[in-house]
Amino acid sequence: MTESENKALQSKEKVQLSTAAEQTQPGIVFTPAVDIFETEKALTLLADMPGVKSEKLSIAINKNVLTMSGEVDAPEGENETDVIREYETGKYFREFTLSNEIDQTRIDAMLKDGVLRLTLPKVEAVTPRKIAVKTA
Amino acid sequence: MIFRRVTNWPSVYWRTPFGEIERLKRQMNLLSEGIFGGALTGPSAGVFPLMNVTEDKDSYYVRAELPGIKSEELDISVTGDTLSIAGERKIPEEKGEVKYHRREREAGKFSRIVNLPTQIDTGKVDAKCVDGLLSVVMPKAEVAKLKQIVVKSA
């Protein structure tokens, strides 16, 4: 059993994007929590974006900058009034700079249950090779 | 600061005279977070998951953001006027040798109970979890519904 299995989840306020001045549209922008890990073959990015539908998610790469942005439509119906509000909904936005070793043509994105999984394969040339040290 | 103690979770009744003030304060906080970098926090029970509760004349709607949690992993139950949600968020171990650069997502167990202002019709509660967003619709019990009274003219 790993440590995380016993741990109780703590509530966390969603993190708002600090550079609000960059926005051109009104509304709140949050930065999604991400996990990034690397294997020999690829870099994988997991981002929590609850409420984002795949058609409202855009992933773009421009000059090694990976941009993820997702929009969330307010789930409340017209006639509903707030009883208690603990979180707000808005856009998700986050950017990462990629190194040159990512093969940008083979990037794969999957959105499931509000979690985005981006697989960024490395260019063949940079997958590390074992170097055999010969003894003389 | 006393009113915060009164209106903070887990209070018995939500509808306090300060409800609107809390809402205003929350929106002010959201504004000020943009300016000061989020030193202030809004009213919240501090229990995962954070919830939004809304109502219309027939039902209560409870919504919570639960990314990566499948509906079958959630344990939801209702009694007369309470809703309880429990479950566990699992982040599956990645296969093979992986090196992490960032680990911001968290896994763990959670459970939360909310008291609703009125009784609900427990037989007609409907819950669904789509795109990591849980929404529970709870029709109000007949006795708790607002009755429109027609004034007859003589």
List key phrases describing it.
heterodimer; A: 136 residues; mainly beta; Immunoglobulin-like; four-stranded mixed beta sheet; four-stranded antiparallel beta sheet; 1 helix; 37% strand; B: 154 residues; alpha+beta; 2 domains; elongated
Please give the structural blueprint.
The complex is a heterodimer of chains A (136) and B (154).
Chain A: H1 3-6, E1 29-30, E2 34-38, E3 42-48, E4 57-62, E5 65-70, E6 81-85, E7 91-97, E8 108-112, E9 115-121
Parallel strand pairs in A: 1-7
Antiparallel strand pairs in A: 2-3, 3-9, 4-5, 5-7, 8-9
Chain B: H1 2-7, H2 19-36, E1 51-55, E2 59-65, E3 74-78, E4 82-89, E5 99-103, E6 108-115, E7 126-130, E8 133-139
Helicity range of chain A: under 10%
SSE ordering of chain B: HHEEEEEEEE
How many strands appear in the DSSP assignment of chain B? 8
The first-level CATH class name of the domain at 27-74 and 86-103 in chain A: Mainly Beta
Which architecture of the domain at 27-74 and 86-103 in chain A would the CATH scheme give at its second level?
A: Sandwich
The CATH first-level class of the largest domain in chain B comes to: Mainly Beta
How many structural domains of chain B? 2
Shape of chain B: elongated
Cross-sheet strand order for the largest sheet of chain A: 1-7-5-4
SSE order of chain A in H/E notation?
HEEEEEEEEE
Question: Main β-sheet of chain B: number of strands, strand sense, barrel status?
Answer: 4 strands, antiparallel
Mean pLDDT of chain A: 83
Model regions low in confidence, pLDDT < 50 over at least 5 residues of chain B? 1-13, 37-42
Helix and strand content put the structural class of chain A at mainly beta
- Most extensive interface between two protein chains, with residue counts: A-B, 50 and 62 residues
> What gap, in angstroms, lies between the N and C termini of chain A?
47 Å
